[in-house]
Amino acid sequence: MRKQQNYTEAVARHGAEAIIIHPASPVAARSEAFASMDGLLLAGGPDIDPGRYGRRSLPSDSVEEDRDALEAEAWAVAAERALPVVGVCRGLQAINVFSGGTLIQHLDGHSGPAWGRGPAATHPLRVEPGTRLARILFPTNVRGGVVEVNTYHHQAVGPTDLAPGLVPNARAASRAGELIEGLETRDGRFVLGIQCHPERTESTPKAFERVFGFFVDAARGPASRR
User: Fold this and answer.
1) Choosing from 71, 89, 153, 181, which is the catalytic residue?
2) Domain 2-224 has CATH 3.40.50.880
3) What residue spans define the domains of the chain?
């Protein structure tokens, strides 16, 4: 599946080997992956079950409860072992929900054509100064900046949805008001969520390639964590 390959190729470019697990993976394979993983990448995908953050499902919701359960388990293992985590699109939302936050369940006009069905919709993203994301994207200018990113999502994290222990590192405007489109932890652990899709290199600024490089470096061990 091409979408999956985009993620595996992104980490492979920086020397990592991806171990892919999904809800149908045997229990033994899942346990082995959790025991051996050095970092966790939560990829894009369908909506998270609103019941996980105390909301009712909308009629248009498409959820995969078994995937939610798998990723919640993986998140818990990564947290227990203090492993680095990157969340992309749904993955950002998962980090927020698993940390005790909520979501805006639907945004009008914020997602363009599905990937592979036309040019990506884009919008400006304001990166917060002094954050880990600013240091990654703008290594010579930690004051942050504005970049144009792709947008494929119809759910989001609003200012009042952010989980305790997380801080915004990027924001974007929308018809529903300002959105948090990047987040990270307060405690210095490498946990980074980004709402855009940096693995889709045809519609993402080249600087986002460094996100995968920093993630792989962090996964190599404490001595190289940024």
Assistant:
1) 89
2) yes
3) 2-224
